[in-house]
Each structure stands twice: as structure tokens, then as C-alpha cells.
Amino acid sequence: MKKSAKNISLQQAAEIALQQAKLQGASAAEVGVSHSKGLSVTVRQGDVETLEHNNDKGLALTVYFDQQKANASTSDFSLTAIADAVSAACEIAKHTQADDCSGLADAELMATDFPDLSLCHPWKIDVEQAVEIAMECEQAGREIDNRISNSEGASVSSHQGERIYANSHGFIGAVNSSRHSLSCTLIADDERGMQRDYWYTIARDAKDLETAKAVGVRAANNTLRRLNAKPMSTGSYPVIFSAEIAPSLFGSFIGAISGGSLYRKSSFLLDHLGKQVFPDFIRIHEQPLLKKGLGSAAFDGEGVTTQTRDIVSAGILQSYVLGSYSARKLGMRTTANAGGVHNLTIDAGDLALPALLKEMGTGVLITELMGMGVNIVTGDYSQGAAGFWVENGEIQYPVDEFTIASNLAEMFMGIQAIGSDVEIRGNTRTGSVWIDRMMVAAA
After folding, report:
1. Is 328 helix (H, G, I), strand (E, B) or coil?
2. Quick check: 213 and 195 in contact, CB under 8 A?
């Protein structure tokens, strides 16, 4: 008896797609099949504002005819729909231009060990429970102070899913994962107008989330501390990027050493392999096998085995960030980063944020960035910002509506310390970052 689309597993769908690609003459093929489901609830001022269930599935296929390639996708897992998607990809591929760098990652690099990384922890939460948690979170924040005048809401989200990646090397890898979060954004008033801020918690396992009350209170306190902000005086000052926003600095760094930027010659770090790009106390490395890590993976988007490795050691750039295509364009070998880095970690120093502020003495603590003013080609950096003025190692008052500017190369070499207050709510793990000097301009 033929199986209906509902009865076809993700692995079977992947195998069928690869079989069809072979039957239709493809020299190689790869397929990703996924199914995810979840619940998201947002409450605002004590009322349910949005309620969303999702149940999504999809199959994305790439076929190769030697160095010609094409893609197709479908959300229908019936045999006919899969065959039609493969036929469409094969037909398109015959009309594409050959690229001698295209193709699957090398067979000998495929992962063979699949450790349990504890990535999937289903949360048995229904709508009523989610609403209750969100209500508790928002209420906890709104009750802190009568200056909390409004709310942009509190949200609870719970998602889990499975993804299969398979290719014609015979590789099949499956990942089951979950991600749960709770967030709250509040608004406060003073004579200068309104200020808003937020807090959130996110984890693979709902047991690792902060409590609803803790998130609401933190959101309220973050908002209140921004009241009575004063304008900045234009000048050149030391700055500290708080741990919450510091990952963006290293995101720019990864963008500059990623294969696409390098082979297009559009990076200010072109040809910097083996050169000093950070002070000698900086170590940046990947930890792909961390239990419950938000960026953990035993294999990358091409099935290549991930590895714990140094990208920067003693401040020296040791490796780029490459998938197989960009590696071939550069005459190098993939670094198992098709799809990105895995738990990028910047080794922390010994000083927590209060101690960093004391060491800095006078300067600016940046807690929010606005805009898209980062040029990876030149390294030029200019962002709108908000934060706090610091004197004698102590926060004096909030400051907003100013711009910080420099060049990424100078900023990286100007790092004085990495704080011990490591941010782990994402794929980049870093503490606060103290940079010796940046230009700060009042709006």
C-alpha cells in the first residue's frame, strides 16, 4: 500500500527526493526536510493581544548535474509532489551556468558521530498556561513603579521541531530541537518624554528559563533607569559595550572573515589570516558540542563534522569561516560553517561589569544600538546609541540620542578587557567589551 503524505516520515521524504534525483539523471543531490510546531502568546495591558499556533513543514532540494545546479522546494510530502519538485529542479539545472566550485561537501568530511547534545526539551504548555505566565510577567513589571505608564506586552513562545539533512554521499543526519522564550517590554514617562526597554529569557529547556516575575521586574528596572536622560557632549571617550549588545561586534567580525565576503574581496580583513587583529589576550573559538547550546550542532548545513576550534588565538586570526563553496573559491577547505558558526565564544576576563566601569573611570556604557551603520568592506562603524555616562567608575545618568563612530579594525585592536558577565542567550557568548576610545557625537 502506498503511503499518504501524512504517513511519510521526514527521513522517508528525504530518501524519496534523493532517489528521484538519481532516477532523473542528477549526478548529486542534497535535501533538507523539516517539521516544526509551536505556540506564541502575547498579552498587553492585561489582555490577550495575539495567539498563534504554527505547524510548518517543508522540503528543500538542490540537484547537481556536474557543476550545474538548481533548487526547488515543496511543503507537500506526497510522492507526486516530491517527484514534481525534483523534476522542476532538474529541468532548471540543465539551463544554469556551470560553476566549478559548486557541489556537495567532500564525502570524507561527512559526520559519523552524533552525540546527544540535549537540544530537544518539549514544553507541555497549553494556551491557558502561556497566557497566565505572560500576564504574570507583565503585571510584575507594571507594578514596580507608577512611572511605568504603558506596556508593549509580554510574550511566551514555545517551539520544537525536527530537521533532516541528507545527500547523495549516503549521509543522513537528524536534529530534534526546541526553543522556548519569555519577554517583556515596558514604557515609562518623565518630563523629557517616554522611554522603553525590555528583558527576555530563552532556553532549549523551559526549566532553564528565568521566572515570569524576574523577567517583568528586570524589564521594569531597565526601563526606569533610562528616565531623566541627558544629552551627550561630543568628544572622544572610552566605551563599554554591555554584554547584551556586545555580540553584534563579533557578528561584524564573523561577517568580515566569512567566505562570501572574502572571495568577493569585500572585507576589510581580506588576507589577514595569520595576522594580529585583536590584542594578544583575546581568544575567540567555537564550541559546537555544548549541551543545550543555542548554537550547538554535530554537523553543519552540508553534513560536515563540526569541531571545537580556535578562530582567534592570542589575538591572531587562525582561521576563516567557510562552507564548501566559498572554501573552493578560495582554494581552501571548509571549516564546517555552512549555515554559520556554532556557539561562538569569546573568553572572558576576571572583571564583572561594575569592576570594568571602575577600571574605565570616565566614559560611556552602551546598552542599545540603533541603525545599520557597519561597512564590512571598509570597516567603518557608525551607530546610533543609548546608554549611561560614567565618571569615577560609577554610572552618573542615562544618555541617549547620540552616535558612536570608529573603524572596526581600530575597535578590535583597542579592546581593553572582556567582562566576566557572559551573555549566553544566543549563538555568541561574550561578556561586556571595553574599547579604549571611540568618537561620540551628540544628535
Report:
1. helix
2. no
Residue range 299-343, pLDDT digits in tens = 999 999 999 999 999 999 999 999 999 999 999 999 999 999 999
Measure the CA–CA gap between 399 and 232, rounded to whole angstroms. 6
Q: Residue 183's domain spans which residues?
A: 127-163+173-224
Residue 108, CA distances (Å) to 84, 171, 175, 266 in order: 31, 11, 21, 31
Residue pLDDT, tens place only, 271-288: 999 999 999 999 999 999
Three cell numbers written together for 366: 552602551
First to last CA, the chain: 70
The count of structural domains within the chain is 3
Cell numbers of 76, please? 507537500
Instruction: Spell out the alpha helix ranges (H) of 183-285.
Output: 212-224, 247-256, 259-263
Place of cell 581580506: 270
SS3 76: coil
CA-to-CA distance for 195 and 441, rounded, in angstroms?
21
Amino acid identity of residue 71, one-letter, is N
Q: Is 88 contained in some domain?
A: yes
* Residue in this structure with the C-alpha cell 549588545, named with its chain if needed: 245
Does the model's pTM come out above 0.85? yes
Asked, for residue 149, whether it belongs to a domain, the answer is yes
Which helix (H) or strand (E) covers residue 421, if one does? Answer: none
| Gap between the Cα atoms of 208 and 198, Å rounded | 19
- Closest C-alpha among 181, 134, 226, 41 to residue 142: 134
